Amino acid sequence: MRSISSGFKVGLRFLKNRTFSVFYREYERRLAKEIHHSEIPAHIAVIMDGNRRFAGKLGKAKSYGHSIGAETTEQVIEWCHEIGVRQLTLYAFSTENFHRPGEEVDGLFNLIDRKFLKLYKDPRTHEKEMRVRVIGDRSKLPDFLNETIDRIEKATEHYDRFYLNVAIAYGGRQDIIQAVREIACRVSRGELSLEDVSENLISNHLYPSPGLAVPNVDLIIRTGGDERVSNFLPWQANGSECAAYFCAPYWPEFRKIDLLRSIRIYQVRRAEKKREHSVRALKIVKMFGAGKYEEKLEEFGHLRPIKRQGFS
C-alpha cells in the first residue's frame, strides 16, 4: 500500500513539473513576441549577484556557484544577441571583490581567463561580429589574464555588430576619477582648454580609455534580491535615467523569462515617460494659448512635474 502511495506522489510530481514546463515555455514565447512590438534597449548592464549564496543553498563550495554562474553568463550573451541588444555590460569583478579570500579571487581570475579563451576560440564570436572589451583597472589583474584579454580584444577590435563589455577590477567612482585625472593632464599639457571640458569629453575618457567609450545604459539588471547598483556605471546610468530591474533569483538561476520581463519593464517605463512628456507639453501649449505672454511665462516657471501614472 505504501509503495502505491509513493508511486502516486512521484507521478503527481512529474505531472506537475511537466505542466509547469509547458506553461513556462508558452509564457516565454508570448513575452518574446510581445517585446518586439516596442523598442529593444540598446545597452543592458547586468550585476550578476548571488553565485556564492546559490552554492551555499546547495551545500556546495563557492567555486561551484561561480562555475554555474559562468554558464548562465554564456546563455545571457546568446539571448541578448538573439533579441537585438547592441551592447551588454557585465559586472564580473568589482574593486571590492579584492577583499575576498585569496583562494576565491585566484579561482575567479582563472575562471574568467578560461571563459575569455573559450570566447576567443568560439566561431560564434566571429559569426556575431562581437567586439569584446574589458573595463576596469587592468593594472590590478594578473599577467596571464591581461595577456588573454589582449588576445581577445585584438581579435575582435574591428567588429561592431554586438559589444560585450566585461567589468573587471571595476569601480564607478574610480572610473570617473581616472577620467578626470587624464583630462587634467591634457589641460596641463595644453592639449585642451578648460572650455573644452564637457559631459561628452568626460564620457570619452571613461573606460575603456583610450577607445570607444561605453555608452549610456538603458537598463540595469541585478539578480540576487538586493536593490542597489553597487557603484556600477554611475555616469552612464544616472545621466541617462535608465530603468532598473531587481529580481530575486540568484545569478545561476537567472532564466530567459527574467531577461524578457526586465525588457518589458523598460518598455513600460519608456512609454510612461513619453506620455508624461506629452501631457506636460499639452499643458504648456494650452497655457500659452490664452492670456498675456508675460503672465503665462511666469506660470510656466512654476510648473511642477506631473505625477507619474501607476502601472500594474
Descriptive account of the structure:
This protein is an alpha/beta fold and 312 residues long. The protein has eleven helices and six strands. Strands 3-4-2-1-5-6 form a six-stranded parallel beta sheet, with helices on both faces. It is globular and about 70 Å long.
Average predicted confidence as pLDDT:
87
Shape: globular
Largest sheet: 6 strands, parallel
What is the percentage of strand-forming residues?
A: 5-15%
What does the radius of gyration come to? Answer: 24 Å
How many E-type strands? 6
Unreliable residue stretches: 306-312
- Our measurement of the CA-to-CA distance between the termini, rounded to an integer number of angstroms, reads 49 Å
Q: What is the share of helical residues?
A: 40-55%
Regarding quaternary structure, how should these chains be classified? single chain
Our count of helices gives 11
Main structural class = alpha/beta
Strand order of the largest sheet: 3-4-2-1-5-6
> What is the N-to-C succession of helices and strands?
HEHHEHHEHEHHEHEHH
Describe the structure in brief.
The protein is of the alpha/beta class and 312 residues long. It has helices at 2-35, 51-57, 62-83, 102-121, 123-127, 143-156, 172-188, 199-203, 234-238, 256-288, 293-301; strands at 43-47, 87-94, 130-135, 162-170, 219-222, 243-246.
Characteristic key phrases:
312 residues, alpha/beta, 11 helices, 6 strands, globular, disordered C terminus
Give a topology summary.
Layout: H1 2-35, E1 43-47, H2 51-57, H3 62-83, E2 87-94, H4 102-121, H5 123-127, E3 130-135, H6 143-156, E4 162-170, H7 172-188, H8 199-203, E5 219-222, H9 234-238, E6 243-246, H10 256-288, H11 293-301
Parallel strand pairs: 1-2, 1-5, 2-4, 3-4, 5-6
Helix pairs in contact: 1-10, 2-3, 3-4, 4-6
